Each structure stands twice: as C-alpha cells, then as structure tokens.
Amino acid sequence: MSSSSLHCAARGCHNNWTKRRQCMEQTCFDHGKPRAECCGPPYNLHRIPSSDEGRRMWLKALNLKKPPKRPFVCSFHFVDGKPSEQHPNPEKWLGYDTPPPQMARRRLVRLPVTPPPSSVSLDTDRETDGITDNVTEGSTHCDASTQSEDLHMSDHAYARDTVHAPSLHSKATQYPEQNLVHTVLLRNERLCLMYTGLSRAAFYGLADELMPGCGSFPLHPNDQLLITLIKLRLNSLQGDIAEKFGVSQTLVSRIISHWLDHMEGRMEHHVPWLHRDTIRATMPQCFKEHYPSTTCIIDCSETSLQKAHNLDSRGESYSHYYGQNTIKYLVAIAPCGLIMFISEGFGGRCSDKFITVESGFLENLRPGDEVMADRGFIISDLLRERKVNLVMPAFTKRGLPLSEEDTTNTRRIANVRVHVERVIRRLKNYRILAQTVPINLAPKFDKILKVCAGLCNLRGDIIQEELE
Length: 468
Hints:
GO terms for molecular function: DNA binding; zinc ion binding. Pfam families: DDE_Tnp_4, HTH_Tnp_4, THAP. This is THAP-type domain-containing protein. This protein has helices at about 15-25, 35-40, 50-60, 120-135, 160-165, 170-175, 180-185, 190-195, 200-210, 220-235, 240-245, 250-265, 275-280, 285-290, 310-315, 350-360, 380-385, 405-425, 445-455, 460-465; strands spanning about 45, 70-75, 295-305, 320, 325-335, 340, 345, 370, 390. The protein is of the alpha+beta class. It folds into three domains: about 5-75, no CATH class; about 180-265, no CATH class; about 270-465, Nucleotidyltransferase, domain 5. About 25% of the residues are buried.
C-alpha cells in the first residue's frame, strides 16, 4: 500500500496522507512560511498493533462491518493524540454512539433500627430542622468556613449549579468574581489577541456594545462573547471550550449559535460603505501618487467546505481552481484597508463576475467611482453602465509581451492591490475561515463572514500598522 493511499479507517473521518502532505505545504498564517518549517503536522496516521490482542481491541473500537486488512487511525481519535499506555485504543469521534456502561445494581442491606434515647430526641429534631432551614434558605446564608461538599452529589456535577445556585437579585450575585473565566484568560494583551484577535480595550468595548440582548444563559455576558470569539479565532472543539468554562458542550453550542445571530445584527455598522470624502481623507500616500480616485479594491477568496453527500450540492461547491469543495465570497476594502463590503457565501464553481453581480456589490457604486480588481473580474461592461471606472492589470494579446507602459502600470497596480490580499489574510486569522467548514455549520457561514469582517475592522487600518 503506497503512502498516498493511506487514510483513516474511522467512520466519517476523511483524513488521509495526501491531505496531511498538502497541509504541510501550505503557508502558515501565523508564521508566514510553509507549515513544515514551523508547525508540526495536523495529525498522524497510526498503524494497527501487530499483537493479536491489540488488533482485536482496535477492531472492536472501530466497529466496522468490513474492516480493511491494514487499518490506520488518525490522531484525532486518541485521547492523548496517539496510542499511549493509558489509552492505547481509539476512543474519540468513532462515528457511532457508544452505549452507556451497565452499572451493577446495588444490593440493600437492612439494618436493625435502634431508637435513640428520649433525652436527646428533642435536640436531634431541633438540629435536623436547623439543617433543613439552611438548605431551604440557600447557601448564601452559610459561613464559608463551615460549608462542605455533599458526598451524595459529588458524582452528579450537572446538579451542582442547581443545589448551590447563588441568589439572582443582582448582577454581582449572579456572576461571582471567581467564576468569571474572561478575567483569567484575558489577563494580558498577548492572551487577548490570541483568543479573540482583539486588544483588551476592543474586547471590553465590544462586550459593552453587545450587552443588550445577550441572552439568558448561566454565564456572564463577557464569558459568552469570549466563547464565541474563541470558536471564531481558534476554531476550537466545542468540547475543549466547554472544559475551559466548566459548562456542558450543549450549552456552548447554544451560546455560539445565539451570539452569531446577535452579533450579525448589532455589528453591521462595523462594516460601513465609506463616503467618498472619507475615502479621500484616509487614503494612503501609495494610492495618492498614481490612483487617487480609487474607491475600493475587490477580490474573491475561498474557504474549504466538507464534501456533501448530495451530488448536486457537491457539484455546485466544487472549485476547479483549488480542486476541492469550497465556499467563495467577495471582499471589498477601502484604500486605507477597512473592509467596506463582504458578500454571502457562494459555491466554489461560481465565477468572480457572477458573485459580483449577485452579491449586491454594484448597488454601492456611484458615478465617478473607481474600482481596482484582478484580471479575473470581467466586469468592465457592467461598470461602464454605471459610469464607474475599472482599474486592472493589462492583458497580453496573442502571446506578445506587454509594452513598457503596460508593464509599469501592472507593477504599480500590483504594489497597491496587495493590500486586499493582506486584509484577506487577516480575515483568515480567524481560523474558522481558514480551515474546512463542516456541513452542519454551512447555514451559519454568511453570519460568520459578516462577524469576522467586523472584528477585523476593530483592529484598525492595516496600512497604518505597516507604516508605524
């Protein structure tokens, strides 16, 4: 079996050796060089043990009707990322529901009941009443030094919030300071940038802006926002996020879904179409020299999409340029680097011209505007109808070399058009746009695009950062 044909044998897993090699050849967004030179592989393929017992345990865990002769399993299905002494077999995300373990029924032993002495019966009843009153009134009236964990509830973590629920009379009592995860994870600028892609001032300012309508969840609104941003910025597994915040995976999923809807509606003004005077006032010097009338620079980008089971959907999203299923979208930026427009997601087979027309981008243009684009945007006739000028690199004709003037203009356009590529690279710092989108997340992708574009604009102008 050649290395190119190795693939993970777990149900529903599409990881293989070819995808691993392609990922290592891609440019790392964090380091700016091939992943093979800076980051490790995203996963490894582990061979089935040679021992009969180990092979039997692996095949039992995979639960395949027709297992291959030499199955391989990728790192995602192991608790420790690889076979270890404590967890030698694949256990995670095996594509089927593991039945719950059958607990042996506990036998009850009846003990003879001896009546207590009459002299202490009243005191015992009084003490019992006192304990019942304390539990009824709530744990907020108990001294912290006298509280202890209820052993009966120690194995039922899901019930602890109900048994020891604090009073909900005020924000302060509803979210105790020691339970605010964002105060720990965002304790400095470096961590805040890593988890959210924003500065601490921008994060807390956004949290105050989004506070109304944040939803009735048993977490502080800042923690709810942080959960959503961690999903967008790092594309972490929901189980990992749930472990960080000490909540259930179901609650994390509900919070992310609610906040994507909430943020999309409240962050529209963070992706504004700037007035022509504002564009001129904020135009960098590199545009003023040769292209002072530029209104926006446009380009299309694509994000990998999990292959659909439906053949029609699979064909609509197949990108011949990338050779895989993708979601394609249009980005328009101002000369200063601010994202002014981002379209909804289209299938990867759609052309740049089709997306430009169907996305509604042309409705923002006014007579006298100037759009800078790549050669793939065959939209000069559409812009001419709106009295809008199109600036794009020159085409070669019949294999003849470009003239000296065309070569100079092409080089000048490339020098300033590179800023839209840098903005898209910043947009894909939110790894949910840089990694493969699962099919079940595709309905939320349009909202993810708009939210990530607004978050990018909160970081400031990209060209000003480079000048500084």
